[in-house]
Amino acid sequence: MRRPGLHRQHWKQGGGSKGIYAKLTVVVVVLLICTFSVFFSATISGNRGSLEPSEINVEELWESAKSGGWRPSSAPRSDWPPPPKETNGYLRVRCNGGLNQQRSAICNAVLAARIMNATLVLPELDANSFWHDDSGFQGIYDVEHFIQTLKYDVRIVESIPEIHKNGKTKKIKAHQIRPPRDAPISWYTTVALKKMKEHGAIYLTPFSHRLAEEIDNAEYQRLRCRVNYHALRFKPNIMRLSESIVDKLRAQGHFMSIHLRFEMDMLAFAGCFDIFSPEEQSILKKYRKENFAEKRLVYNERRAIGKCPLTPEEVGLVLRAMGFDNSTRIYLAAGELFGGERFMKPFRDLFPRLENHSSVDSSEELVANTRGLLGSAVDYMVCLLSDIFMPTYDGPSNFANNLLGHRLYYGFRTTIRPDRKGLAPIFIDRENGQTAGFEQAVRRVMLKTKFGGPHKRVPPESFYTNSWPECFCQMSPSNPADKCPPENVLEILESQLENEVNRDLEALMETNSTRRTEI
């Protein structure tokens, strides 16, 4: 069943790939221009029209949010020369953390290579430390597509080549550096570049959050979007699994995905212990002591300011107050729920039509990797393609934050983002027996949130959560900087790349001619 309100253009790819590639690719060209055939007329606002505080139109939420005439576009809008043949050296990076933290790091690595005029070595994924999964970049992403998509931006190789000189083979050893967290561009153009020129290659590790997000250069930010939303495509087997799950879910109508972040690591990080048994609290406290810095955390204080993840029951109560009934089909993207069925049962009673990737698709490939990178990648794709996405704890969650940004770029797809701080006193009153007006109070809070439309990025909101306005454009803008690039931008970039290659060939021919003359 097609999602209403959004028509997608299909894009033929090499090798006859179909299915989910066509669904995901909303670009007319390979990597750059995203053009939608339907524009929505609305002002830039998180809410949908002038609804009264007690009204939420559920049917409207199943459609995409209003775009205000904006559409995604990560194409360059100013002079963007291709990478020269001769670079300053090789850049290796080790991306630590989970799949989505690594995804952001890969975007930063490409940008760092562009900044330093470096040849990027295919990023390493430190999968073992987090997922106990050694799939690596080649096991998760389509390498050929990644390299081809970014050919106008950076040179990429799968490994540092050996040097053959005077009949000898020599390996370049990359000089290891630990980059500062959120390093400015100036660090890369001075400290890192100096070491690269000295050694021929540098190895930046760890490489999570090692380049500042807020950069006063819109073209650099658009490069990040090209990497994130165009170049990083999962391998065909992952796409097929995701497509199969989405098709089965959508066969019965709309479906919603929820990132239920009620897991041990996040609960320990948040310091939300008191609702658990003494034995469970001991487990959480031990995990926190081993993995996070010591900090005084008082549960009642944390919860009152919205620092605790919503419980499964609270998630269900929010959805019910908004008007979703028990026929709503929900896909759960989550790890192992802490506390087990005791916490899940109240949610299941409210919304019995719950699914996850294992219940929808029991293929051996997915069952064997349900907790690894493959399982996380499938969850990501299903959540991206769902009609509505709801993160229950989007603060430090890279999975939720990246999806919010991707869904915004992928056509302002509806998101429901609970305001935990605004909801906290309402839930506390309910637990104390004050139930009158509960659902109306929840709706008033939720109507103040944003449902996926374009909105100004305000710290601490991440660029990867909201790339507006840098990676969006308008056909008839009031600000010239927001004007969409020309439709033939790919031809322009291709022409520039060909000219660069021709110049290299001419220089090579001239060098050979000079040598023959000397002989």
Automatic annotation (TrEMBL):
UniProt membrane topology term: Single-pass type II membrane protein
Name of the protein in question: O-fucosyltransferase family protein
Coiled coil: none
Pathway(s) of this molecule: Glycan metabolism
InterPro entries: FucosylTrfase_pln (IPR024709), GDP-Fuc_O-FucTrfase (IPR019378)
GO biological process per UniProt: fucose metabolic process
Species this protein is from: Gossypium anomalum
Localisation per UniProt entry: Membrane
Keywords for the protein's UniProt record, in alphabetical order: Carbohydrate metabolism, Fucose metabolism, Glycoprotein, Glycosyltransferase, Membrane, Signal-anchor, Transferase, Transmembrane, Transmembrane helix
Protein family membership: Belongs to the glycosyltransferase GT106 family.
Superkingdom: Eukaryota
Transmembrane residue ranges: 20-40
Classification of source organism: Eukaryota, Viridiplantae, Streptophyta, Embryophyta, Tracheophyta
GO MF assignments: glycosyltransferase activity
Pfam families, sorted: O-FucT (PF10250)
A GO CC term attached to the entry: trans-Golgi network
